[in-house]
Amino acid sequence: xxxxxxxxxxxxxxxxxxxxxxxxxxxxxxxxxxxxxxxxxxxxxxxxxxxxxxxxxxxxxxxxxxxxxxxxxxxxxxxxxxxxxxxxxxxxxxxxxxxxxxxxxxxxxxxxxxxxxxxxxxxxxxxxxxxxxxxxxxxxxxxxxxxxxxxxxxxxxxxxxxxxxxxxxxxxxxxxxxxxxxxxxxxxxxxxxxxxxxxxxxxxxxxxxxxxxxxxxxxxxxxxxxxxxxxxxxxxxxxxxxxxxxxxxxxxxxxxxxxxxxxxxxxxxxxxxxxxxxxxxxxxxxxxxxxxxxxxxxxxxxxxxxxxxxxxxxxxxxxxxxxxxxxxxxxxxxxxxxxxxxxxxxxxxxxxxxxxxxxx
Length: 360
What we know:
It is built from seven helices and 18 strands. By secondary structure, it is of the alpha+beta class.
């Protein structure tokens, strides 16, 4: 019988091995002494973030590497995930670069403490910082655990995204959106219902969460109730994506806003066309560029600037020439005129995108 205890420091749910008297958290490394463990019960949601693990699978928490427990008591907290799927047929080039750039941006522009930022990439030596399905799940739990009014949380993901048929009737287009962890071929993908149940629905009043998702089919990957449908002239309307089943996909009073790389039926580019130096995710690059170039005053200005950068890959980026034009044609299937993706904005509540100041 699996048992569940909460970490005494960061409150992450930990699976307790039979007979254990203490357990070390894989996220913050704090040791929790066991008093009265309780049976593992799934969270009260239609799609529990954690199912029961197979009985034959050894618990990873017995073997967490030693080390001091970092402090997670700041007002800002971030999970940054970059996956390249190295040496596989799904390999990407720019995702770890995206993760490093996002960490730098959050630390130096928005004062996110390093001790409150979890990086999950294939370059991490800690086995619990590799972007596997279980580690990403644990990191998302940690992100929202113990948050209080005034806190600002960020989830950045750069990697593959996909879709799968939805049979419950809670998707307008009939498909669930998914993120693909490093081990998705053996462990499966992380579905939008789970992401919503883990980091959206529990979020209390006064807490702010931003998701920055650079992946294919990522438009509504947080399953938020409203999508900002904006045309090329900047005019917009909020589309209602609340499920016909009546299930609530918003927060518990907190503010949740997501920037994603493209619409649900589009793909996101992993390309060197934009930076001219190294491969990056087009969405992450355009997000950082919008801030660095002073276009981050409001959410509407951010979205327009991001779309403009991607749409006009030769404008204001130091020339380009025939090589960039050829690369762009390859990426867009010969269409020219920029990359074929449009960043999207979704939220738990509609708002005036040109009046609301952008801040992390």
